[in-house]
Write a structure and sequence with these properties.
- About 30% of the residues lie in helices and about 20% in strands.
- The chain is of the alpha/beta class and about 90 residues long.
- The chain has a four-stranded parallel sheet, sandwiched between helices.
- Strand 2, helix 2 and strand 3 form a beta-alpha-beta unit.
- The N and C termini lie far apart (about 25 Å).
Length: about 90
Amino acid sequence: YAKYYKKVIFITGTNGKTTVQFALGKVLESAGYKVTGNFSGSNMLRGIATTLLAGGIPHEDTNSILLCEVEEATMPKLTKYIHPDMIIVT
Protein backbone atom coordinates (compact mmCIF):
# COMPACT_ATOMS: atom_id res chain seq x y z
CA TYR A 1 0.00 0.00 0.00
CA ALA A 2 2.90 2.37 0.61
CA LYS A 3 3.49 2.84 -3.12
CA TYR A 4 0.14 4.63 -3.43
CA TYR A 5 1.19 7.54 -1.22
CA LYS A 6 2.59 10.69 -2.84
CA LYS A 7 5.40 10.78 -0.28
CA VAL A 8 6.73 8.36 2.33
CA ILE A 9 8.67 9.69 5.30
CA PHE A 10 10.31 7.54 7.98
CA ILE A 11 11.53 8.88 11.31
CA THR A 12 14.10 6.86 13.22
CA GLY A 13 16.66 7.34 15.97
CA THR A 14 17.29 6.65 19.62
CA ASN A 15 15.17 9.46 21.07
CA GLY A 16 12.60 11.94 19.82
CA LYS A 17 10.87 9.87 17.13
CA THR A 18 7.37 10.27 18.57
CA THR A 19 7.76 14.00 19.21
CA VAL A 20 9.09 14.67 15.71
CA GLN A 21 6.34 12.56 14.15
CA PHE A 22 3.55 14.39 15.97
CA ALA A 23 5.02 17.84 15.26
CA LEU A 24 5.71 17.12 11.58
CA GLY A 25 2.30 15.47 11.18
CA LYS A 26 0.54 18.60 12.47
CA VAL A 27 2.61 20.86 10.19
CA LEU A 28 1.83 18.70 7.14
CA GLU A 29 -1.89 18.51 7.99
CA SER A 30 -2.07 22.29 8.40
CA ALA A 31 -0.44 22.59 4.96
CA GLY A 32 -3.28 20.54 3.45
CA TYR A 33 -1.78 17.05 3.32
CA LYS A 34 -3.64 13.92 4.35
CA VAL A 35 -1.25 12.23 6.77
CA THR A 36 -1.38 8.54 7.64
CA GLY A 37 0.97 7.33 10.33
CA ASN A 38 1.57 4.95 13.18
CA PHE A 39 0.73 7.54 15.81
CA SER A 40 -0.07 4.80 18.31
CA GLY A 41 3.67 4.24 18.64
CA SER A 42 3.78 0.73 17.19
CA ASN A 43 7.01 1.23 15.27
CA MET A 44 8.10 -2.27 14.22
CA LEU A 45 7.07 -4.21 11.10
CA ARG A 46 3.71 -5.38 12.49
CA GLY A 47 2.71 -1.88 13.57
CA ILE A 48 3.66 -0.33 10.26
CA ALA A 49 1.83 -3.06 8.32
CA THR A 50 -1.25 -2.43 10.47
CA THR A 51 -0.97 1.31 9.79
CA LEU A 52 -0.91 0.67 6.04
CA LEU A 53 -3.89 -1.68 6.16
CA ALA A 54 -5.91 0.66 8.38
CA GLY A 55 -5.08 3.67 6.19
CA GLY A 56 -6.11 1.88 3.02
CA ILE A 57 -5.19 3.08 -0.43
CA PRO A 58 -5.37 6.88 -0.72
CA HIS A 59 -7.24 8.46 -3.61
CA GLU A 60 -5.01 9.54 -6.49
CA ASP A 61 -6.03 13.16 -6.18
CA THR A 62 -5.10 13.58 -2.51
CA ASN A 63 -1.87 14.99 -1.19
CA SER A 64 -1.23 11.85 0.83
CA ILE A 65 1.79 11.30 3.03
CA LEU A 66 2.77 8.17 4.91
CA LEU A 67 4.62 9.35 8.02
CA CYS A 68 5.98 6.50 10.14
CA GLU A 69 8.06 6.30 13.24
CA VAL A 70 10.41 3.33 12.76
CA GLU A 71 12.40 1.53 15.45
CA GLU A 72 16.11 1.68 14.62
CA ALA A 73 16.66 -2.08 14.25
CA THR A 74 13.55 -2.33 12.05
CA MET A 75 14.75 0.25 9.53
CA PRO A 76 17.02 -2.09 7.46
CA LYS A 77 14.26 -4.71 7.23
CA LEU A 78 11.54 -2.21 6.36
CA THR A 79 13.48 -0.42 3.64
CA LYS A 80 13.76 -3.70 1.75
CA TYR A 81 10.00 -3.43 1.16
CA ILE A 82 9.24 0.28 1.31
CA HIS A 83 11.52 2.89 -0.24
CA PRO A 84 10.92 6.18 1.57
CA ASP A 85 11.32 9.56 -0.05
CA MET A 86 12.89 10.86 3.13
CA ILE A 87 14.40 9.43 6.33
CA ILE A 88 14.66 11.70 9.35
CA VAL A 89 17.17 10.57 11.97
CA THR A 90 16.86 12.03 15.47
